[in-house]
Design brief:
Ubiquitin-like (UB roll); globular; alpha+beta; 747 residues; 4-stranded mixed beta sheet
Length: 747
């Protein structure tokens, strides 16, 4: 690049000013004269000297628009001559099979109509190489190809040679005496290559994951009593063929400590936390556990935060006795300085609007800082499902009593096009097509569309949800659906439903929500078998159900999708009779409770019950309860309860309950395979059919119970579950089912 100033006067003259009568610009084709004058910083009629001209020259060059800039003088005229950098006509990616063009383009800065510079090209090459390295292609090479076009334009092509994926061939540990290599391999997130990990990226080397693995090892050892543990080094060596990495972790385990005594130094009124001993998860005589210390601190902070003490500092003090391998642990509780939120910065949200993030935060500018609210805000953002990662951090503010909170998010795809195929014991062979956008236009709205076609069920539905109606914590939505279901196996009829629902929901607290709804539905009972029960034949035809209802939900589960800890309680009530043909009151309750026993071991309890009764008329069969199948394994769908003994048709019931206990545990296989086992006991009953006669059996509340085992595979295509169950309390007229298989795929 060449730039200089040529002034036809002496050095002494150059230090003096000249009057600029005119500025003559030449050589520019795309860049407007006004743009050049703006960067030059000199106008006609100005006084200019060598310093101001050189300053303008530098600014013009820094724009990146020009390959060459020359400024000369001709009397009182300033002559600006430029040679423009080419503009990019087209950017292409060639040779990329593993990564789509869209993903590569998202990482680069050069686009069609951008100004071409070799520096910018090299920066984009490095960005693309980083993309390939993150995806495990460390042998990838990229050569930029520049093709000259007319009118000072170029085509830019990135010629990519991807090479083979660079997997992790071997992971070894040096210095581990307390735990085997197999034990430690299960602790870290990186894994060795295996043929069955075709859809996993954990066996690809990633420097960031290596740092994360070091932290996982620290947490593991310090939770096992090794307070002095340290990862001396973590080294990744690329094989000479550049096709695999060898990971080596060098460990300094140190000694294993036991707690000699546990004390609390409390600057606050001890009466504020009378249950302090219950909050401490560490006791004298226990093995030292850093995670238990952290959980104890969190419990105390949350307890005090709920009582208005948001500025508490708790530091664990460890006094080691290296001779006896014991630790004296002291929790030092101090009233910290009162700190307020000065500013909230949100970064990383490209398509999601700021207000969508802000409304999930439990604080605003000016609020008192609270660790509990900070943690809850982070959890609420994660629960949205809009972001791959969420990090909420604090930085010092403009004064010691101010803090700046930064919400750093990394967006993930919220649109989903799903194609499914599979088989279930309930619906038979099925095909499922769905389109869902959970963050419509970045506003947090949900739009979904689904079509399900199965041997025994056809379903079409579309729904829209606005989570913050009128910019308040009030959700609103509408659903439209059409369902056709074949009950000929269980009850000798088919059911068709066409309907819609309007709903609105709000929160009483962080964990207690209520949803109100109105639903109208046209039902039809058709294709009744000629040999069906007379009670079913009497109900053949159409009717309209118009109802209002509500659902009250208390949810303290740790994860809504795969819970391992916490409680769920749900009450649903609806009343039919707001117009329409049906008149009834229906009540249902549901509960779930999860207890983590150990890593990947969970004890789960679930229960449900329901009651429906008609106002002056019998409840139609399509509104009654049917029990069996998924909620009472060991029995077919509608396998228990009132039944016509002459036709074997299930008549349904007005009252039911179910209860289930399940132990979920690992099967000892590599975690990457995604297999878990289960032992379960299911119980339940169904009764109170309004159909009566000598042919009706099972119209009582006799208990049914079954026990069994199950295996679940969390496959990349969706969950696959197999259950084997055997009833040990049943009646002769019940229909049993030993094997239950459910399968679904998404790709």
């Amino acid at each position: 690049m060449l730039f200089f100033v040529c002034l036809p006067f002496s050095a002494q003259a150059q230090s003096s000013s000249m009057y600029v009568e005119d500025i003559i610009i030449s050589g520019n084709q795309r860049i407007e004269n006004s743009t050049i004058l703006t960067y030059l910083g000199i106008s006609e009629g100005d006084m200019a000297d060598g310093e101001s001209i050189n300053r303008g020259l530098k600014k013009l060059y820094e724009t990146g628009f020009f390959a060459d800039v020359r400024i000369t003088t001709d009397g009182d005229d300033l002559m600006v001559t430029v040679i423009e950098n080419p503009s990019i006509n087209r950017v292409a990616y060639e040779g990329n099979d593993a990564i789509d063009d869209e993903d590569l383009e998202a990482e680069t800065t050069l686009r069609s109509r951008s100004t071409f510079t070799r520096t910018a090209v090299q920066r984009d090459v490095e960005r693309l190489l980083n993309v390939y390295r993150r995806n495990g292609y460390y042998s990838a090479t990229i050569e930029p190809q520049i093709i000259q076009r007319e009118q000072n334009r170029v085509d830019l092509a990135f010629d990519i040679t991807e090479g083979e994926k660079t997997s992790i061939r071997n992971i070894s540990f040096i210095g581990n005496e307390a735990f085997s290599t197999a034990d430690l391999s299960r602790v870290i997130s990186s894994t060795e290559y295996a043929w069955y990990k075709l859809l996993s990226s954990d066996d690809n080397y990633d420097p960031d994951r290596l740092e994360y693995d070091k932290e996982l090892l620290r947490r593991f050892y310090r939770a096992e009593g090794y307070a002095d543990f340290n990862v001396t080094s973590a080294f990744a060596e690329l094989t000479p063929q550049r096709d695999a990495f060898l990971l080596t972790f060098t460990l300094d385990e140190g000694d294993r400590y036991t707690l000699n005594k546990v004390d609390v130094e409390n600057d606050l009124d001890r009466d504020l936390i009378p249950n302090l001993d219950e909050l401490l998860l560490t006791k004298a005589g226990d093995r030292y556990d850093a995670s238990a210390v952290e959980n104890s601190i969190d419990a105390i902070i949350e307890e005090l935060g709920d009582k208005g003490y948001a500025f508490v500092e708790i530091e664990p003090s460890l006094e080691r006795d290296t001779q006896a391998d014991t630790i004296d642990l002291t929790y030092v509780i101090k009233q910290g300085p009162r700190v307020y939120v000065e500013r909230i910065d949100i970064i990383g949200n490209i398509s999601t609007l700021d207000e969508v993030v802000r409304r999930e935060l439990r604080f605003v500018e000016g609020d008192a800082y609270s660790t509990t609210k900070l943690r809850r805000s982070e959890q609420r953002l994660k629960n949205l499902g809009f972001f791959e990662t969420v990090n909420v951090t604090t930085d010092p503010g403009s004064t010691p009593d101010r803090t700046i909170i930064t919400v750093d998010v990394k967006e993930q795809s919220t649109g989903e096009i799903s194609l499914g195929a599979g088989y279930s014991s309930t619906d038979g062979a099925l095909a499922d097509v769905g389109i869902t956008e959970r963050n419509l236009l970045g506003r947090g709205q949900t739009l979904r569309f689904r079509v399900l076609a199965a041997a025994r069920r056809q379903q079409f539905d579309i729904g829209f949800t606005e989570p913050y109606l009128f910019n308040r914590e009030l959700s609103g939505g509408v659903d439209l659906y059409k369902i056709t279901q074949d009950f000929r196996t269980e009850a000798s009829f088919e059911r068709a439903a066409l309907g819609g629902k309007l709903r609105a929901g709000y929160s009483f607290s962080e964990y207690l929500t209520q949803q109100l709804y109105y639903s109208i539905e046209q039902n039809e009972i058709s294709d009744v078998d000629p040999f069906a029960s007379r009670f079913i034949k009497d109900q053949e035809g159409e009717n309209i159900t118009s109802l209002v209802g509500h659902t009250l939900t208390y949810d303290r589960r740790d994860n809504r999708f795969a819970p391992t800890d916490g409680l769920l309680l749900r009450l649903t009530q609806d009343v039919a009779g707001v117009g329409g043909d049906d008149h009834f009151l229906r009540n249902e309750v549901q509960s779930e409770y999860y207890i983590p026993l150990a890593k990947q071991w969970t004890l789960a309890f679930a229960g449900s019950a329901g009651h429906i009764f008609g106002f002056g008329e019998d409840v139609r069969i399509n509104q009654r309860f049917f029990v069996g199948g998924r909620e009472l394994r060991g029995f077919e769908d509608a396998g228990i309860g009132p039944r016509d003994d002459t036709t074997d048709d299930s008549l349904g019931g007005n009252v039911y309950y179910t209860a289930s206990s399940e132990l979920q545990f690992p099967l000892g296989l590599p975690d990457d395979l995604g297999f878990t086992g289960a032992l379960f006991i299911d119980t339940g009953s169904l009764w109170d059919s309004e159909d009566s006669g000598p042919e009706v059996v099972g119209n009582d509340h006799l208990l049914r119970a079954s026990a069994g085992v199950g295996v679940t595979w969390a496959s990349p295509f969706g969950p696959i579950r197999i259950d084997l169950a055997k009833p040990f309390l049943s009646e002769d007229y019940d229909i049993e089912e030993t094997f239950r298989f459910s399968f679904g795929t998404r790709f």
